[in-house]
Specification:
- The complex is a heterotrimer of chains A (442), B (310) and C (306).
- Chain A has 442 residues and is an alpha+beta fold.
- Chain A contains 17 helices and 15 strands.
- In chain A, 45% of the residues lie in helices and 14% in strands.
- In chain A, the strands form five sheets. In chain A, strands 2-1-3-12-4-13 form a six-stranded mixed beta sheet, sandwiched between helices. A three-stranded antiparallel beta sheet of chain A has the order 10-5-11.
- In chain A, helix 16 (404-419) packs antiparallel against helix 17.
- In chain C, 48% of the residues are buried.
- The chains are: A alpha+beta (442), B mainly alpha (310), C mainly alpha (306).
Amino acid sequence: MKHTKKILALVLALSMVFTLCAFAQADGVEPAKEITLWTYPIGNWSNEEVVNSLVGDFEAETGIHVTVDYLTYTDGDDRVNTAITAGNAPDLLMEGPDRMVAGWGAQGHMVDLADMFDEKDLEEINPTVMDVVTSDDGSVYLYPLVMTAFCAGINVDAFKEAGADQYVDLENHTWTVDGFKAAVKALYDHFGSTAVAVYCAGQGGDQGTRALVTNFHGGTYTTPEHDGYTWDDPENIQAIEELAEMKGQGLEFDASLVGGDEIALFYQGVLKIALCWSIQQQLDPNLAGTGEGLTMNGEQIAFMNFPSQEGVDPVLNGGIWGFGIFDNGDEARIAAAKQFIQYMCDSEHTAEAVRQANYFGVRSAAADGTVDLSGIWDDNETMKEFNATVVPNMGDYYQISKGWNQARTAWWTMLQKVGEGEDIPTVVAQYCAEANEAAAAG
Amino acid sequence: MNKISSTRSKVYQAACLIVIILLALLFLFPLYWIVIGAFKTKQDNYSLNPIWWPKEWTLENWEKLFSRRSAPLFDIIIPFSRLFTKNGKDIVLLSGPVVPGAIRWLINTVFMAVAAMVLTCITAALAGYALAKKRFVGRGIVFSLIVCAMALPKQVILIPLLKEMNVLGLIDNIWAVIFPTVGWPFGVFLMKQFSENIPGEILESAHIDGAGELKTFNTIVFPMVKPGVGALAIFTFINSWNDYFMQLVMLSSNFNYTLPLGIATMQGENSIDTGLLMAGAALAAFPIIIVFLIFQKYFTKGITMGAVKG
Amino acid sequence: MARAAQPTVSRALRRRETVSGYLFMLPSLVFFLGFVVIPMVICIFTSLTDSMMNNTKPVNFVGLANFQKLFQDEKFLEALKNTFIIVVVSVPVTCAFSLWVSSAIYKMNNFFLSAFRCIFYLPVVTGSVAVTVVWKWMYNNYYGVFNYLLGPQGLGVIEKNINWLGDPRFALGCIILILLTTSVGQPIVLYVSALGNVDQSLVEAAKVDGATNFQVFWRVKWPQMMPTTLYILVITTINSFQCFALIQLLTSGGSGTNTVMYYIYYTAFKLTSTAGHFGYANAMGVILAIFIGALSALQFWLAKER
């Protein structure tokens, strides 16, 4: 008995020494003086001038120089993957959970940031968001900064000109499916050109086409457990069939566009309805800096909920963005990157970082409650209106479902096939099955 | 009878000429559109009906092009040095003053194309001569390897090449684009064709005169294949300048970009800002077009003189 | 005595030739072996494994499983078909087109001749990326110049805008058209000079014998230009495999324009369920390499037969 105690004591003592060593080591790491950050275009985080000033302030305070490179949604994924292969991944990446949690995080390329959240942080951060960024095993690969609900947009002047404004409720920013159909018809009759494009050249901006389809008859996209895809349910098939019926009469399935091209065309006044719209776009259409809520020709833009059946609330897809750290095996660089995240996401500088993203912050306060973040957008009418009319309809963040990347590919490939006129129930079932296969495989 | 056929052939010739002029216009059109697009105002560029001739000229697009992304004019680094430094970064000996990113891209592109050109010409001239005139063991195998590899697109060896460059510490370094270009065996093949034309007797007499191998090459072989080297130089320069794929996978930092890569990225970023894109495209295309126009005489002469042997 | 010494001399000569040959080859071989052959060998090895981008898992030897899977992958088969179509269409069309242009311009005076030669060479010089910027606009569904010229404001041939790059009926053709403009440059230069070098006395003789222009061309000129044609076949084939930039920038492999070259990149680096399956991607590379190797061998066998 005595013997056992002795051993136990020894083990305890030893383990304490080891833990102490471990702690000492973790604390003893001198942060690197140079790190790299790659950002996808998220609000002004794609604007060199703004980002330079943000990271400049960071450097002034910490002495850590951040080299920034800007990715696009067209080839950003390939570039990150190429870099991982070539052992050249950036230290920091700014994107959403769909890529970082379900993608690179799950593949083991990223650093677990769970130790960066203390109880206070968990109180301050929106619990739903926290739930999304936390993987099943408790690891957190993304430190969230901002969030939004994706919406649609309409060219108000064109709607008025075509007499289609009667079908939309501009006060509550809502419309019904019948209203949508009537509006597209009115726009087509008046302008004689495509008013809305179901873009499907790739995965870029696919949240818009997903929301359009699922809201049409109240279908769902995934199972509530996020382990399978349900977009082949009868509601969605009916929705896709009805959309296909509108082909050639103001609506086209366009396999030459992705979301980015669509909003460009909308901004140019060619398309009258944008499915890939967001509040960031509303504040600065097409990042062109030509005025809030205006197209290039100065026509007024209104953000809209996605059309839903009469009396049914739309269910909108959410977006979350934040920072993740690639595991380059260099403790010093990881430490510096964590310092950067702390600075941007949980300090007195967070308000500015959020504002520049043109989205809503994910937390009510920062820096252990010393900084109040609830009123970041109080001075902005548009944001307030959006917060009141659109944000409440935010639904489940399902973009971290199993096999998500394959599901995205299957979705746009399916839309292309629908556009080519193939039998709808067959192709929908085929591609949904493909996605489910990927989900089953993990 | 004869008269009719000659008028008919004249009509045919005139028709041909007209079609060819139209085709020439089609070939010139992209270039024309780039040039005027670079000087068009936003409104003109976005117009749904094409504006064939700008109503108003502007330098706006160029200002925008040169106000994006800043970078040092040049960085002189020690290649491979990152393999030995603690933080895995190359040692920078000297950095130039900060300039707009597009200017740095131009510098990168010129450096890349010139380095690839010089290295290719030297290695290919030597190897081509050996393949044509030396009866060495394994010549057949080497030549068949070269022939088979000539048409191989680089996508095939993409993944191993990336890993290899990582091991060599060349990722995100312009040399990672240059080396595979030099390794592409088309130059060797071309120079072999040229070297076939060198009469064996001259080489033999040089040998009898006691000239060493290198001297023979310098004084006899090289002057004779010079037109070929000239053609190959221009050819490699153009190819390397426009080798978008290798640039895409090997370069990741904005200041290491080349012009084609820079424009391709801009296309994704600002898919709407046509004017900016056109200005970028003009910047990428014109230096090389000028180089081509200056040297095109040598090029056509070189390429036709010896490449094709019966 | 001289006879007896012959083999030794020749062996010494042979050794000397071999040493000096390889010394001359050395600089080139370093690059060729280092950046083409060795990666190709690694590629072949990797294609037999389940190697992934995620290198935390051990790599297993899987034999030909990747190849088996490839031939059941519909997308790959489509890509292979498209690659084949591009080569089979663009090579002969480029040759025929450049021959036709050359025969029309080679008799012109120097100024026009070099002007035309330059113009047809310009797209090559301008480069795929810069050229695509314009073509993308020309093919645009909503405001492109083709739809404008063919539509009601122009010739009025089409009623509705054609979605050139988004419609599988047209997209591959559109890519091939751009590829053509970027590959006829050198063939035209070569054919112009070949036509100029045709032995005129044979042409005269044939004409005296009452041969028509057409017969003169096929019986006299064409055989004399055969070496040029073969060389053009080789470079055009090389060129038609270099369409990656066009596809990546214009369609991202959609609307039936996927090629093996793009699909390798796609499989390796796009975020799909197969992302980072390097073994699988390399297997495609091997198949493509075999395809190309066979094609090159065929061409050179043809050349030798001549």
